[in-house]
Amino acid sequence: MNFSTLCIHGGYKPDATGSVVAPIYPTTAYAHPGVRRSTGYDYIRTQNPTREQLEKTLALLENGCAAFAFSSGMAAVQCLLETFSPGDHFLATDDLYGGSIRLFHAISQKNGITYTSVDTGDLEAVQRAWRPETKAVYLETPSNPTMRVTDIRAVSQWAHAKGLKVIVDNTFLTPYFQQPLNLGADIVLHSATKYLGGHNDLLAGVLVTKHEEDAEKIRFLHNTIGACLDPFNSWLLSRGLKTLPLRMERHAASAWKIARWLQGQPKVKKVLYPGLPERTDYAVSKSQSTGFGGMISFEVDTEETARHVLESVRLIFFAESLGGAESLLTYPLFQTHADVPKEECAAKGINERLLRLSVGLEDADDLIADLAQALAGGGAHGL
């Protein structure tokens, strides 16, 4: 089946009722037909029919052998970290979501797992950062919030020669635009709260594995730790997936139009969007993805302008998330990266002038008009 069809039909076979929509099974426990006999379902944490249908679909969409749905994206990241042992080390994209950095600092290092931040778009820098105890490379591409792109194929080829696992956070592009497992990665991560759900109304995370050996480890941890996705959010996420291709096309088309418009605004000094041909990593983007997504970051002339825009948008919400139908504008330095030391942020280009826009499903011209009026009075706004 083609991708759009998999989104709708991939993991579901109608039950005896003939329902064309997968039902919600909210039950915690399942009756046993006899001693040491099971229907295949025993307890909600181990498996639930609603979550199972979702996970089958997700595995098909990412072309993996197994998928696991978690109660949040961070729960999925934590489960991944539990596959490491004290003394292990991994390499990570230096421009990561701030919540991942916080988790790596606060939890992983406490448990004896260390990591090195590196510009994963520079393969030689990745190679120099390797240590004998390195076990994996953790990529976020495009990165959050500076939209830097990593060559998944190149990193995977080098990493596998070293015996390392490659993990890719595919939240920004989704499997509709980018399929990391097909490019050489071993595990794919999603904050499914974002584009996979697509409506700003659920919290979820996803891991998809290419190899059964990784699936076995995660399956054990998923059940043992218990951060599994509940039936209601599993059902909402399955529903969101049905329109994923349509939504991603609209997000990307509008983002392209808005990015080009932003480039012509006097108060906008820099536009960060993977689909701009003048970018040095544009060729890599074209080679590994079929679209550029709906995320744009842009730097304005002053902090005063940035704050004015955030407080003046009328259609766009000043809010901390992304990937939904509603457009959201975020202030990374004080929101997504608030727990990251300011000097680290500055080195990555995350400063008081940088804004991140999640382009929603509204008409692009309406969003441009909103940004135009918000930018118009930036110089006169009191802080």
Structure description:
The chain has 383 residues and is of the alpha/beta class. It folds into two domains: 3-241, Aspartate Aminotransferase, domain 2 (3-Layer(aba) Sandwich); 244-380, Alpha-Beta Complex (Aspartate Aminotransferase, domain 1), CATH 3.90.1150. The protein is 37% helix and 15% strand. It contains 14 helices and twelve strands. It has helices spanning 3-9, 49-62, 73-81, 98-108, 123-129, 152-161, 174-177, 212-225, 231-241, 244-263, 282-288, 303-312, 342-347, 364-376; strands spanning 66-70, 89-93, 114-118, 134-140, 165-169, 187-191, 205-209, 268-272, 295-300, 317-318, 328-330, 354-358. Strands 1-7-6-5-4-2-3 form a seven-stranded mixed β-sheet, sandwiched between helices. Helix 1 packs antiparallel against helix 2, helix 2 (49-62) packs parallel to helix 9 (231-241) and helix 10 packs parallel to helix 14. It is globular and about 75 Å long. The relative contact order is 0.13.
Structural class: alpha/beta
Output the CATH topology of the largest domain: Aspartate Aminotransferase, domain 2
Return the domain count. 2
Q: Please state the average pLDDT score.
A: 95
| Share of β-strand residues | 15-25%
Q: What is the molecular shape?
A: globular
| CATH architecture identity of the largest domain | 3-Layer(aba) Sandwich
Helix tally equals 14
For the terminal residues, how far apart are their CA atoms? Answer: 54 Å
